[in-house]
Amino acid sequence: MDSRLLRYFVAVAEELNFARAAGRLGMSPPPLSRAIRRLETELGVTLLERTTHRVALTPAGTVLLTEARIALDALEAAGRRARRAAAPEPKLVLAVKADGDGGLLEPVLARFAAEPAAVPVAVRLSGWQEQPQLLRRGEADAALVFEPFDRTGLDAETLAAEPRVVALAAGHPLAARDRLVLADLGLRPGDVHRFVEETRGAGRDLAQLLTLVGLSDLTPLLPASVAARYPRPGVVYRPVADAPPVVLAIAWPQQSRSTAVAALVRAATAVAGAGTGREGNHCSPAHRG
Questions:
Q1: What secondary structure does DSSP assign to 153-222, as a single string?
Q2: CATH code for the part of the protein at 164-239
Q3: How far apart are CA 132 and CA 196, in angstroms?
Q4: What's this model's pTM, rounded to 2 decimal places?
Q5: How far is CA 262 from CA 87, 101, 257, in A?
Q6: Is the model's pLDDT at 278 over the cut of 70?
Q7: In angstroms, how far is CA 130 from the centroid of its own chain?
Q8: What pairs with residue 121 in β-bridges?
Q9: Which of 12, 153, 165, 227 is most buried as measured by Cβ atoms within 10 A of its Cβ?
Q10: pLDDT for 280
Q11: Domain 87-161+246-285 belongs to what architecture?
C-alpha cells in the first residue's frame, strides 16, 4: 500500500473536508479526491461516504484511520532510529518524567553501565504520559512510565509498585488526620486513574502542582516516594489507605532488536527485584505471577 495515499487518507479522515485536507497537504482538492478513489479501488472497500454537504467515515474507513496512523508513525520512527543508529557515537534514549522514576533511575543507570552491551544513555525528560508516544515515534528507545498507559506497539515489564499519598495544604481540614481513605476525598477506587489524569495531565510539573496545593484546595494523589523526595513548606502528605498503588514499568518498542535496550531492561528488572532505590524511595518490587 502506498504510504503517500495513506497520508492523503488520514488528512481527509481527520478533516472530514476535502478542501481543508487539500490545503493541509499543499495540493488542490481534485487530485486528492482521485487519490482517495484510487485507494478505495485498491482495497476494494468504501472508506468515505460523500455527499454535497458532508464527508463521513465508513466502518472500513474508521478501521483504516487507526491502522494508518500506526503505520505512518512506524515509518517515521524507523527513519529516526536509522538516523540515530548511524550517528558517530550511538546513544540509548531513555524517556522519563522528571518526577516519575520512583527513585529507580540512578541505580538502574548504574547497573546498566556495568552491562557488556551498555552504551551512553541520554535521559529525555518528558511530560505526563508522553513516553509511549516518544517510543512509537522513534524519539526514545525505552521509557520509565506509570501504568496504565497505551501499549499499542510496545512491550513492557512491570517494575515496582508503591502506595499513594495525598498532598494537602497545611491548613486543609484533612491535614489534621494521620490517615485518609478515598471517600474522604470524594473518590472511589474506580475514579483514581481519571482523577490522577485530571490533576497531573494538565501540563503541570511537580513543582507547579505542589505550589498550587499550598495555595488552594487541590488534593492530588501522588506516589509515596514524593513525600520524602519533595518536602515543601505549607504542604503535607497523608497516606490514603484504600488507594490503588502506583505501578511503574519500563517500556520499549515491540520491534526493537537492540541489545542495549535488552540490557537496560535486564538492569531495570534486577534493580527493581532487589528493591534498590535512592534513600526515601518507597517502591517495592511488583508482584509477578
A1: TEEEEEEEEE-EEEEEETTSGGGG-S-B-GGGGT--GGGHHHHHHHHHSSS--HHHHHHHHHHSS---EE
A2: 3.40.190.290
A3: 17
A4: 0.71
A5: 20, 19, 8
A6: no
A7: 4
A8: 92
A9: 12
A10: 42
A11: 3-Layer(aba) Sandwich (3.40)
